[in-house]
Amino acid sequence: MSKNHLELINLRKVFGGVVAVDDLNLSVRRGTITSIIGPNGAGKTTIFNLITGYLKPSGGIIKYDGRAVNGKKPYRVAALGIARTFQNVQIFSDMTVLENVMVGRHLRSHSGLLRSSLLPPFFRKEEKKISCDAEKWLSFVGMAEEAGRSAGSLPLGSQRMLETARALAMEPNLLLFDEPASGLNARETVAMGELISKIKEMGITVVLVEHDMELVMDISDTVSVINFGKHIARGTPAEVQVNPDVITAYLGE
Amino acid sequence: MDSGGGFTDLLQFIFMGLQRGSIYALVAMGFNIIYNATGIINFAQGEFVVLGGLMMVTLTMGFTFSIPFAFLITVLFVMAVGILMERFTINPVKNPTVLRLIIITIAVSIILEGSAMILWGKESHYMRHFSSDETFEILGATILPQTLWIIGILILIVIGFMLFFNFTMTGKCMRACAINRDAARLMGINDRKMVMLSFALSAGIGAVAGIIITPIIQMDFGRGTMLAIKGFGTAVVGGLGNSLGGLVAGILLGVIEALGAGYISSHYMDAIALLILLIVLFIRPSGIFGSSEASKLKEF
Amino acid sequence: MGRQDYIGLCVFFAVVLTIPFLITNDYYISVLVFAAFNCLACIGLSLLLGYAGQISIGHAAFVGVGAYASGYLTVEMGWSPWMAMGAGVVLVVLIALLIGVPALRLKGHYLAMATFGFGTILYIVAVAAVDFTGGPAGLSDIPAISLFGLVLDTDKRFFYFSWAIVGIGLYFGLNLIHSRVGRGLRAIHGSEDAAESVGVDTPFYKIQIFVLSAVYSSIAGSLYAYYVNYIDPGPFSMMHSVLLLTMVAVGGMHKVWGAVIGAILLSLLPEFLSFLTESFQAVGLEYNEDYNTLIHGSILLLIMLFLPEGLIDGLGRLAGGVGGMINIKRHQDSAGT
Amino acid sequence: MKRRFLCAAVSVVVLLLASNLYAEPKEYRVGAFFSVTGKFASLLGEPERNSVKMIEQQINDAGGINGHKLVLFVEDTQGDNTRAVNAVKKLVKKNKVCAIVGPSRSGSSMAALKEAQKAEIPMISCAASEKIVMPAAERKWIFKTPQKDSDAVRRIYDHMTKNGIKDIGIISGTTGFGNAGRNQLKLIAGEYGIKIVADETYGPSDTDMTAQLVKIRNAGAKAVVNWSIVPAQSIVPKNMRQLKMTIQLYQSHGFGNVKYAKAAGVAAEGIIFPAGRLLAVNTLSDDNPQKALLLDYKTKYEAKYNETASTFGGHAYDAIWLVINALKEVGDDPAKIRDHIEKARFVGTGGIFQFSAEDHNGLDKTAFEMITVKNGEFVVLED
Questions:
Q1: What CATH class has C3-306?
Q2: pTM (2 decimals)?
Q3: Chain C positions in Cβ-Cβ contact with residue B298 (cut-off 8 Å)
Q4: How many domains in chain A?
């Protein structure tokens, strides 16, 4: 097992004539929290979309556990143990909170079309197990009471928590958070930070894209700074904060 | 009287295709105007054509109005129908979903069709040609003067709309709404008014299509559905929302149908055009001229 | 959760069992038999449309394939009705795969157009391929189907048979939506990106449900052929596809029950209209059948304008009273943001 | 709001009661079903409905049939097969009719006839296709009044043979009617030594047949036969004129309304088609056995409905009279009515019917007159 859980080698993405990710090299150590920061439009979300297969790289290699995973469809990437959340929260608003998390158990269960349609859910062992597991993850993020509610009716903060619970229900090895604190108030942000730290303690590698610097500096082991699709700095939070390139990038010349 | 050989036939089929295609193009244009303003596919579009044709028949054959005067009245009448439709069935909808709006337009088309049946009866109505109905020959192929009227009016309308959308304030506002409704609203454009205008315009275009085609094909209450289907297909092939694309696709489909009927098999004529449509969709989901992002926008 | 669906299913079977005792006139029984065909096709369509969020304006073509496979194989090849129905299902699966794989990559209006175009092509083939389909003259003398030696050639027998199949279809459908696969489908409808992020193989799921809903339609078509004993292209035209779609939307497309309600109500609507005609005429009022088209359109329009979630939710809301209304309103408001 | 709803509910109940109270024991109940509002067939259904309604009133004004009131139940099939099947069931099981007239279309007739057979109620179709009553032994309860397609074809081929036409092109609509005609044209051509050099079709809502006609022209046809219902019947002659085709155009007996000829204008001049004598009643000689009846129907219909009488209305007229005549003789027992019709000899608008156990149509090719269009009017073609 290589030390780096995730490795981006000369990763490149061009939209039309615009270079969004420019020969980026980045590595994420197993079991750590790595934050990717940078000004708006630096290409952070694009990197997530490349890793998780929503976009096809124009060049370069994405290595996960030492294996190239370029160009796989998102659901194949998920099957490798990579989970993610979305910048604009993406929950299934017509389903209940519990059902949302149950969808997260998709890869950990196996019934197909035929088996599913033959017996009602209350006669099926697997269905009970899925619902049990989902409840467990819902309690983990502290939302056990909301299980029966319609997901669409939740406030944004709870929706982000729910999205996290759904990702955790996959029991992933790597979890990518895309701006988990955006739109949250101070109290909710702190709770989110605690949750992310707890996830790391479970042994899950976390990559974080975030604008809330306090949160980033609080919980990250490593911070990578990106600007114009290029890697400009990397280090511990303390190192990055004093890096002159970073300051220029954020404040301008 | 013997056939003038392969070229003459080809020319004959092309003339036939141009005449069909012009009508498809006009119907597609009506679809596109409303689609751009609202994201709705208005399946009542075909009924505008029918109403236009039938009204024109009544005015010219019943009241013996002169053609230009009747033309004007008819277009205004159908535009009024379009405005009423928008006011009473589209405007009040608070939480629109695409499917709901589609079914509303289908319901309106049933109502319009039923009204036409009651008002004009079930038989098919005929109308005299704008000018002579004597054909003349071009390189051995025959063509009706009315076909030239159709093509001429189509060109005028296209030019008219290009000028309208590019050089008038209202036209520019409509384009802005089509590109980004929220942004347009923030800029102070009255988007509700633009939606109403789009229904008026596309009803007007439908009326024109009905007026110019009726002398050739006659008109009855039941023709709307087929026209809507063909027009929608045309709009999709041309790229939904792309007026120029709709124009080219309309002519193309018309000519392909005519050639298909002429050279392959009249039994499968409609299937040939649809097959091409499917192939276009599968290879280029956004239509020949559409942008690929547009096809991802709307969901049910 | 979901348990009320199964209670509903029991009520459904109880109602089906008692109806022939309440309605003694075979004519109404036969109206309900036709409603059953629509019901079956609509359940399939609602799985596709309401749960997986994929539109199809070509489902009447699948009904047609089932009907024609049954008609051709029994009349021309002498197959038994059951085998012909099975062959129809196999054929529909193949056709659905052929059209579904490329079409389901499309979305929204483009998917609508693709299914529509495909449906129309099949209709044109049914009209033009005279050697197989009999063309516009159709196929006659299709035999009746029999079950355990009992020939289903009376209205009552066919009523039980067809509604039992609807019940089975309903049972499968309800199980499906409360399962892993069903959640996957609803997830696709909710957010395709999010569904893929948790590992739902969206193309595979879409094609599966497309095929399944086509199979529902195919069986409905076969039943039609065995009941009427005659088929021609008319009932499988695009107008019928649109009608099926309308039934699902009117009933409420986010619930399988909505499809059932919508299919029954719209199947009964012509009866209601003709009842209206008769009643007006009976009291000496001048009333023309021509107005029925207008009334049909108006009813559709009013439902879509005032009960947008469909009858099943709409009526539930009315029944639930003001309190329920506020609840749903709040729900909608927050969902809209 | 609530009160209005209540009013509506009450009036619906009253209506319901009223419609049921209508049932008197001594009336004769007859059913009819036509495509009154269908898209492509309402042109058939409307005159059919009007005709039977007219007769109902006429009979009842004259005191009914042997003192029994005639009660007619009319259903609208909208041209839809499912509705047609339901209509027969409704007429039989709800309205308890003793005989049924209709439907308008061949497809609907094929779909519905099983129900009539099963219920053992005579059904007299107003649709063209011969398959409806063939073989008569199996279609025990089914009759039809329109003339046979094959006879129409024979009359056309007779005329062609007389004029030395051998190579023809045929063009037909993809409707039940067009398709049945197309089959007969192909089937019988051999008997007359006629060669079909081109066989084209078009959809019922198609509006331009130029391409098909060009193909027929190029195939070297010496005449064209068009087999369809409206509006194609006016478009084909127009298209031919547009293409400057001068070969003879024959149409089917579906060209049964002078309106269609008017719609085609000058292009319709000289079209030849077989038809019942109703269309050219004014040019018939006075000793024609049908003339008095045709004139009577035509004047009454046109006075009542203010539109030209068509052959379609005539088919329903013949059908309802067949039933009424039977009712007069044998009462309202369906089996007796059937037996009576099967032996009936009857002068109708469609011709002089002679039914038999082998022939449930009762007409031969003498039912047709070859008719042509002259100065926008139908006239009998002089040989």
A1: mainly alpha
A2: 0.87
A3: 107-109
A4: 2
